Amino acid sequence: MRILHIISQKPDFTGSGKYVQEMIRQGRSRGHEPFLVAGVCADFAVPEELMQPGRFRVIRFDGHDLGFPVMGMSDVMPYPSTVCSSLTKLQIIEYRTAFARVIGSAIADFAPDVIHSNHLWMATAVAREVAPHLPLVTTCHGSCLRQHRLCPELGDSLKGALRGIDRIIALFGQQKTDIVELLGIDSDRVDVVSGGFNELCFYAEEDASDSDAVQLLYAGKLDSSKGVPWLLRSLKKVEAPWHLHLVGAGSGPEKDLCLELAASHGQRVTVHGVLSHEELGGLMRRCAVFVLPSFFEGLPLVLLEAMACGCRIVTTDLPGARELFAEPHPSMVRMVELPDLETVDRPYRADEPLLEQRLAEALQASIADVRNRVEPDQDYVRKITGPFTWEGIFDRIESVYRQAIGDR
């Protein structure tokens, strides 16, 4: 099968970029032929181990194919980006024109059997308009639904094309409901297939930590929507010895705030920057508790990666997290109840102290379990992580491809 993959931002080690990388790797291992079209910043180089020469096309932002920074699917990206709600009408036209030209040339040269795009947003709408004759499968990663709420006029202009997608992949059940309501399409055309994690990078081994301080880890963007400032403030309330590792990148004032709060803890916080899958897996194996204090997520697969490496989990009770951990565990997973939010990814200022207290209490309890040598429940870990290996996930993705082709 010849598969044209499309992503509107660089295929890096985070979020939807990581997903695209795995789709390409898994597809190639099954004998499929991949081709990649990606929107990238000016200095980004497609990894040679990911794509063969001549098997990818890029649309470069930053004054090359497009005169503005790469458009982020979230308003805060870990690199300079353009916020969707700030796009001018001329920029939208330029974006659609550039993507239409490159997608069209890729289709002419590669002749794909199926297109697999990412995000129910602009690049996918362009793909549908350029190639109405080809089967189109689109994975929703959640951030596109957020943009539909933040940019309703732009979103409404895309819905006609998006309703023409053959099959849509939702990462969890509640997301499917949101997609059906947003686009007004038949629910039978939306398949629920989660993402997965790489067993070769994320696995447990004997605990080698001899530090008195319990090692905590956060991995993700350094910004407020991910809850990083509230995490760093809540740690002021945690009395037990701890050391926090911050992994990820950010940009602008949001990143500056996170780094300032991290510095206020002195040597109790280590800032690592961006790590590869292998490096992150190694750090997870040295940590005892993984914390995700986010206010908005799709399906947070980083929680599975951390659990597979032996970490206990502290996470806000987002729909994706609730779906992953539908069967609760008294010590392996602690859910932090979120107060009502002012926007889709920000709490009311008056509720911030309440959130910090709840997060501190959950962290204190998990740290106490580690210090009291409460053994991790390995049966629970295997039960939760087992269904999410990429090999099994791609079996289901292949079925979606075949159905999209068969429906034609």
Automatic annotation (TrEMBL):
Source domain of life: Bacteria
Domain Glycosyltransferase subfamily 4-like N-terminal: 14-195
Keyword Glycoprotein: no
Name this polypeptide is given: Glycosyltransferase involved in cell wall bisynthesis
Keyword Transferase applies: yes
Keywords, in A-Z order: Transferase
Lineage per the UniProt record: Bacteria, Pseudomonadati, Thermodesulfobacteriota, Desulfovibrionia, Desulfovibrionales
One GO MF term: glycosyltransferase activity
SUPFAM superfamilies on file: UDP-Glycosyltransferase/glycogen phosphorylase
InterPro entries: Glyco_trans_4-like_N (IPR028098), Glycosyltransferase_grp1 (IPR050194)
Organism: Desulfomicrobium norvegicum (strain DSM 1741 / NCIMB 8310)
